What we know:
- By secondary structure, this protein is mainly beta.
- It is built from 2 helices and 20 strands.
- Strands 2, 4, 7, 8, 9, 10, 12 and 20 form an 8-stranded antiparallel β-sheet that branches.
- The longest helix has 13 residues, at 2-14.
- It is rod-shaped and about 135 Å long.
Amino acid sequence: MKHFAAVLLLVFVLGLPANGSANQPLPAQHSPTSSLTSIKIPAGTKVELVVMRPEWAQSAKNGDIIYARTSFPTVFGGAMAIPAGTYVEGTIESVTLPTRKFDRAEIQVLFTKIIFANGYTVQLPGATTTPPAPAATPTTSATPAQGETLIAITIQVYPSNDLLLDNGAEVEMTLGAPLQLDAKQVAQSIPLSRMPQPGQLKSATLCRDIPGSPGTPGTPDTVIPGSPGTPDTVIPGGPDMPDTVIPGTPATPDTVIPGSPGTPDDPGYTCPTKPLVISSTPVNNQPTQNSQPVAAR
């Protein structure tokens, strides 16, 4: 008993726990933020964009660069993944122009890279390994490769406007494959990012002069004079007979027929209706046994 007490006293003096783990360090306390080195965004994540440069029906073609910015932050796993205001770049893969009977256009865009405000650039999966698309024609659409972020943008267009895709047009990009990001680079870009402000992206719609016409002066009122009336007619009576009075006719007022008002000058200035993005649909890029190119309308 005395021997056991001596052992306990020795342990107490040395400050050693009785289980013999005196030299083991305490487990380090790591917060999720401090230990985060990368952010993985899954395929199918939707990223909201606004277009930064317009596309015109007469000049849009395969290979044209599409520039956009994120209009809303993308958050995944409790961490900021893509701040609002981040630049996104893509290329046109296919253009389907409207016809006389169908007033919608479709532009297929292959999004290729994301450029953060601090210069950190991420190539989207599939963007560097895919061969260039064939020449654009009005009747063909691109065939997507696996993992590409290929989006079909459907637009309501108007015959009076040659614009296909306007500044500030809202487009939704759906990632075709998982995306790995450097968490440190993303964190450095957050204070530098600036979300596009309403009205910052002015519409590229061209208001133009058209042949005008002068106004008309109008016509004055037409006045038809009334009659002045006639006095009473008095026929004197005979002896012991009263006079005979024939009443006259009362006067009538003038009749006024209002003239027509004039019309203002037509300056001949018009602004066509802006194109409207109806949908942004990911083109199926998962290989199947019966996969076929997307047919143009």
